[in-house]
Amino acid sequence: MAFPTKIGKGHFFHGCGGFTLIELLVVMAIIATLLSIATPRYFHSIEKSKEAVLKQDLNTLRDALDKYYGDTGKYPATLDDLVTKKYIRSIPEDPVSGSTVSWLTIAPDNPAKGGVYDVKSGALGNARNGTPYSEW
């Protein structure tokens, strides 16, 4: 409990401090400024990480396709064959589209060699460098 303090002729200060409206508005303005600086960087870093994960997933799938071809002499009929034969644990989720079924598969020139020669992202839109995800 604060004890009253005499600060002048007949006026007492009770020591019950609080923030004025101006002080609260200044603090809120500072927080808003910091958020306006940090938010774009946050979303930029999320997009950057999604693209890094997409590149890694594509490399993993392509490596599994090459190993499958090296072992069997032909490419798998579907991506599910890579899981069935334990070349990968599961089909990864495309981080941009958020789906495991959006991968675009490319068949080899010779249909007798199998069904999936290469894989690309089925996500719509362009990467930060301007190239479409479907060209990765």
TrEMBL record:
<protein>
    <submittedName>
        <fullName>Type II secretion system protein G</fullName>
    </submittedName>
</protein>
<dbReference type="GO" id="GO:0015627">
    <property type="term" value="C:type II protein secretion system complex"/>
</dbReference>
<dbReference type="Pfam" id="PF08334">
    <property type="entry name" value="T2SSG"/>
</dbReference>
<keyword id="KW-0812">Transmembrane</keyword>
<dbReference type="GO" id="GO:0015628">
    <property type="term" value="P:protein secretion by the type II secretion system"/>
</dbReference>
<keyword id="KW-0472">Membrane</keyword>
<dbReference type="InterPro" id="IPR045584">
    <property type="entry name" value="Pilin-like"/>
</dbReference>
<feature type="transmembrane region" description="Helical">
    <location>
        <begin position="12"/>
        <end position="38"/>
    </location>
</feature>
<dbReference type="InterPro" id="IPR000983">
    <property type="entry name" value="Bac_GSPG_pilin"/>
</dbReference>
<keyword id="KW-1133">Transmembrane helix</keyword>
<dbReference type="InterPro" id="IPR012902">
    <property type="entry name" value="N_methyl_site"/>
</dbReference>
<dbReference type="Pfam" id="PF07963">
    <property type="entry name" value="N_methyl"/>
</dbReference>
<dbReference type="InterPro" id="IPR013545">
    <property type="entry name" value="T2SS_protein-GspG_C"/>
</dbReference>
<feature type="domain" description="Type II secretion system protein GspG C-terminal">
    <location>
        <begin position="42"/>
        <end position="86"/>
    </location>
</feature>
<keyword id="KW-0488">Methylation</keyword>
